Every structure is written in C-alpha cells, then in structure tokens.
Give the backbone structure.
Amino acid sequence: MDKYLKINEVSKLLGISSYNIRYYEKEGLFKINNKSDKGYRLFSYEDLDVLSAIMMLRDSQIPIKEVKELMDDYSPNKYMDALVKSSDNIDREIKRLSHLKKAVDGLISGYNHSQLGYYTRQEDERWIIPVKKCGFDDELSVREFYDFIIKNNISVDGIFINSLVYLLYNDYLICGLIYDKKDTDIECQKIESGEYICYKFQAMNNEDINEAIEDIIQYVYKNKIEVDENEMVLKELDTESFYHSQSFTKTYEVQIRII
C-alpha cells in the first residue's frame, strides 16, 4: 500500500478535488485497478498520468463525452486531434482573458480618478468599429446593438459594457465598439495613443451631457491646452453601475487628445 497514493494525496498533488476524481471515475473516464483491504482507492504513476491527461483536456473545455470516447477507443491520432482542439480552445481562452484584463484595467484606471473633474491620462491606441451614426438626441438601442453584432459576425468574447464609446463631432456622433482590429474585417477607425485631458461628470440626460462637453471645450481653451478636437471621446463609466441601477444619474467621461 505504501508505494501507492490515496485519493486525498492525489488531490493535493495534482490540485484537483477528490470529488472531481470520483466524478471522472464514475463517468468512466478511467478505472482504479488498485484498492486497499478496506476498499480505498490506491493510485499508481500510471493512474496519475491518465488523470493528468484528463485534467488537461477538461481544463481546455473538451467535453466529458469526447474525453470518454478517447479513453474507450484510444489511438495516437485521436489523442493528437484532441490536443489540437485543446490548443485551439486555450488560444480562444487566452484571447478572452486578454480582452477581460483590458476591460478590468480600464475600470481600475477610471476608479483611480474617482473624483469628478479634470485630469490627464495616457491612453493606448484604440480601434473603433462604427455601429451607428446619429444625432445628439439619438441613442443606440440594445436591439440595434445586438443586430449589428449578429449581422457582422462579431465575437462577443471581447465585448464588455465599457467597450461602447461615442466619437463626438460638431453636429453628430458615432456610437462605436472598442475592438481589436485584427479580429475583424470590418473597417475600423483608429483613435490615436497619447495623453488625453479627461473630464469626469455626472448627468441625468442629454442636455447635461452637452453642457459637460461644452465645459471641457471651454476649459481647454481657457487653459490654452492644445488638443485635437477630432479625437474627442465620450464613454459611460460603469464603476458605479450597481449604485446607479436605481438612480437616473450616470457617470461619464469625455476625453480629448492633447497635441
């Protein structure tokens, strides 16, 4: 018995719960050939190899059914096919997590400037997929947003609440989606990297937003800050979404690139 491991030891060694080990055994993914006199499962090196392979396939989103089929009818070619699928799933997960990290970092950056008012911030290059051109009193409905995503076959993996922004022009605006240019064939509009003067404010309606935009324009003129008004971005901040779920007031940020 001493040359084998018990289930709790395997759990500690491989970082998998005893429940999952029993579950994989129950589903027929592997079979324990060694047991103690009291009926306890005993694991050999070979058992750890099989269990590690199962964990790798499951961690990369290979369904239980497909893993079982591989274990029931193993061949090197089938295993290689499963590994290729596993690698593809991992690439997709890396991409999703990369988008998620950018979204989280964006929220952290916004929260670090939690006070209302003016401040500057360095922004990386961004690419915007134009979703809708509209007037200042128009809004993008969730139906329009959904239809656009489906029609253009845009992956939703990288879309989060703070992915939507508005590009501001003299008499119209474009509602756009911040997206990785290499992930789409749709023509994108680039927002240059650089230092941006930002204005964080709260608003209840479009009139409040328009006033805030005028305020930041007057602020940069008054302080003789050279900006590119063609790089003016408006975004709703969702760091306070839960608080505002029962309130009409929302928090926004206007950004203008300093030149």
